[in-house]
Structure formats: structure tokens, C-alpha cells
């Protein structure tokens, strides 16, 4: 007899169980989330309003910041509120919705980072053809493909999960709804579903990472023939993107390119790429890029000036 679906809500066990540390964690993650939203929003406004940041690289960067802002917003508010909620519950429908949105923005970011590597490859390896290849139409199509790819991936993940029966227990050993913790609660054998999750999320992450690594190897090899000044400028531009790729894909591959098992380190690894990485992206790109830094400074001065006038 097939198990029936009788779970209407899940109980999230959360991130921190130490009552003494919960206020500290609350303040830390609130500040981190505010900085993430404001930092990424600053980059979006800077790129949109600066006449010097109109190249495809900044076009992709603004969309990356947009995705980061919402990717963090999927999990951070829930985590923050749950520090002071004794019984951390989420409805079944809410859990599935969170799963869908989380994977939608996460996979979209994966594809966007890959598109940004392609942009850098064309800019450095084929500079004479850059403007004819990376047209506004092409850039828009690449961003749209990232959104569509993220949507398709997320639909698959959601359908794989929602067709499973959940008849109890209903405690998720995590601070949000994700595939691996939910598979542990299913009242059926989830081996095949786990393999499909690896084939879906894990292989997408691995393939994109390999493409990124190969792209940057080709770029670094091509830089040997450049002048010292050109080499330094290209390396400075690529270094920020390589740093983002490493800190994003490392935890992602660890989490999803493995069987559907959970480890004690999973929560902290997840915190890193869902909450820490979205704030590192604007910091890395801003601090290592003089054009973005100067543009952001102008926007900040304008905001402060406008605010002082209102006061």
C-alpha cells in the first residue's frame, strides 16, 4: 500500500540551538542581509546611471547583483526571524515554493557567471570582434537564457520533490527547505530521485564550473603575448570574477554532487553560498574595479546630498 500524504507543515530545526548565541547570530545576520541588499542595489543603480559602465561586462554584473539580492532574500529573512521563534514551522506549500525560488535564483546565478566568463573570453581573446559579437541583442539573449535555464532546472527539482509522499516525521534539520533534507523525510525509497537530483543540480554545477575553468585557462594562456600593461588590466578584471566563481561553486558542488546524504557541516556550507557569497560579490567587484568603485562613490555622494537636503 502506497504511503499517503498527510504532512501539512514542516518544522525547521534552524541553524543555531544555543540560546546564548541566538541574539548574536540575529544581529550578525541582520547586518549581513542589510549589507547584501544595499550593496547589490548600489551596484545596480551605479551601472544603470553611469555613462562609463555601459559595456556588456557591467550589464551582466548588474543582473548578477539583482539575482544575488533575491537569492539571499529566499533564505536570510526566514533564518533571521527563526532565531526568536520557538516553533519554527513552514507550510507544505510554502516549503515547496521556497524550494522552487531558491533553485531558480541559484541556477540562474550559475548560468550568469558562465555567461560572464564567455564575455571575458571574447573581450580578451577576440578584442577586435568584441563589439560585433557581444551586441546588446546577444547580451540580452544570454541573460534570458540564464533565466530560462534557471526556471527549467527549478521546475525539475520541484517536480522531483513534490511527487514524493510525506507521511511523517516532519522535522527538517535545516533552516530552509532544500532537496536533500526533504528526501530524508519521504516515506518511500528516494535512491532514484537522489540520482536525478545529482544529475540535475550537481552536473549543472560541475559542467558550468569546468567550462569556467577552461575559459580562464584559455584566457591566461592568451595573455602571455600581451604587453605588461594589457596583461595587468585583463588579470585585474578577471581576478574578481574568478574569486566569485571559486567561493560560489566550491560549496555548491560539495552540496549537490554527492548522494542524498546530510552531514553536520551542511548548514554552515549552505550559509556560505546562500548568505555570505551574495555580499562578497559586490565587495569583490567594487573593490577590485576602479570604474565601479568610482561610480558607486558618486552615487553614494549624491544619495547623501539628497538626504541632507530633505533633512
TrEMBL record:
GO cellular component: a single term: plasma membrane
Entry keyword set: Cell membrane, G-protein coupled receptor, Membrane, Olfaction, Receptor, Sensory transduction, Transducer, Transmembrane, Transmembrane helix
Residue ranges crossing the lipid bilayer per the database entry: 20-45, 57-76, 96-118, 130-156, 203-223, 235-257, 269-287, 294-310
Coiled-coil annotated spans: none
GO molecular function (one): olfactory receptor activity
Subcellular location per the Swiss-Prot or TrEMBL entry: Cell membrane
Residues in G-protein coupled receptors family 1 profile domain copies: 39-285
Record's bilayer topology term: Multi-pass membrane protein
PANTHER family according to UniProt: OLFACTORY RECEPTOR (PTHR48002)
Family: Belongs to the G-protein coupled receptor 1 family.
This protein's name: Olfactory receptor
Amino acid at each position: 500500500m502506497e504511503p499517503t500524504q498527510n504532512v501539512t507543515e514542516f518544522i525547521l530545526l534552524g541553524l543555531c540551538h544555543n540560546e546564548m548565541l541566538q541574539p548574536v547570530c540575529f544581529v550578525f545576520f541582520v547586518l549581513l542581509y542589510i549589507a547584501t541588499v544595499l550593496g547589490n542595489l548600489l551596484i545596480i543603480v551605479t551601472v544603470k546611471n553611469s555613462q562609463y559602465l555601459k559595456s556588456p561586462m557591467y550589464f551582466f554584473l548588474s543582473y548578477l547583483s539583482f539575482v544575488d539580492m533575491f537569492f539571499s532574500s529566499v533564505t536570510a529573512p526566514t533564518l533571521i526571524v527563526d532565531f526568536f521563534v520557538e516553533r519554527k514551522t513552514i507550510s507544505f506549500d510554502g516549503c515547496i515554493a521556497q524550494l522552487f525560488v531558491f533553485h531558480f535564483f541559484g541556477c540562474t546565478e550559475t548560468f550568469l557567471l558562465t555567461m560572464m566568463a564567455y564575455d571575458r573570453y571574447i573581450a580578451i581573446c577576440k578584442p577586435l570582434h568584441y563589439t560585433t559579437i557581444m551586441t546588446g541583442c546577444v547580451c540580452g539573449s544570454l541573460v534570458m537564457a540564464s533565466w530560462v535555464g534557471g526556471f527549467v532546472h527549478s521546475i525539475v527539482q520541484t517536480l522531483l520533490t513534490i511527487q514524493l509522499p510525506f507521511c511523517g516525521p516532519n522535522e527538517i534539520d535545516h533552516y530552509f527547505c532544500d532537496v536533500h533534507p526533504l528526501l530524508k523525510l519521504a516515506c518511500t525509497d528516494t535512491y532514484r530521485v537522489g540520482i536525478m537530483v545529482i544529475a540535475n543540480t550537481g552536473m549543472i554545477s560541475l559542467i558550468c564550473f569546468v567550462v569556467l575553468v577552461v575559459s580562464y585557462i584559455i584566457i591566461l594562456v592568451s595573455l602571455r603575448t600581451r604587453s605588461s600593461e594589457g596583461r595587468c588590466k585583463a588579470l585585474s578584471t578577471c581576478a574578481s570574477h574568478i574569486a566569485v566563481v571559486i567561493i560560489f561553486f566550491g560549496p555548491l558542488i560539495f552540496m549537490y554532487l554527492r548522494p542524498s546524504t546530510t552531514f553536520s557541516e551542511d548548514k554552515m556550507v549552505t550559509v556560505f553560498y546562500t548568505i555570505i557569497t551574495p555580499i562578497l560579490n559586490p565587495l569583490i567587484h567594487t573593490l577590485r574595479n576602479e570604474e565601479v568603485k568610482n561610480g558607486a562613490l558618486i552615487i553614494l555622494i549624491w544619495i547623501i546630498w539628497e538626504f541632507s537636503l530633505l533633512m
